[in-house]
Amino acid sequence: MNIKLTALSFLIVLLTTSYSSFSQNKTNESAEVKRIISKKRSFNSTYGFGYRIQLYNGNEQTARKFMARFKVEFPGIFSKLVYNAPEWKVQVGNYKTKLEADKDLIKFQKKFSGIIVIPMGK
Fold it and tell me: What start and end residues bound the annotated signal peptide (predicted)?
């Protein structure tokens, strides 16, 4: 009796697993999914992808101070000083999604005010 119950349980698990994998493959082939993927690729080629957090936008001396302070407060997190005439920007992090950037934004806002999440572009 115990062997029959074990065999039946195994068979049910096997059938359930194979059905769910088959249905997922069928879904990925739909025209709607292909259209959404194409739209996402078009968006990325136009606007780029990824996000950074901008701590400061202004003169060079203050930007360097912000960057130094950030490196002390959060060692090990990527930081970059960007010059777009006539302003200097301090940008930190490399995030694939805005959600990831927003999580760190909350953490950084405890030490820095007025910071924003920006898309990286192409």
Answer: 1-23
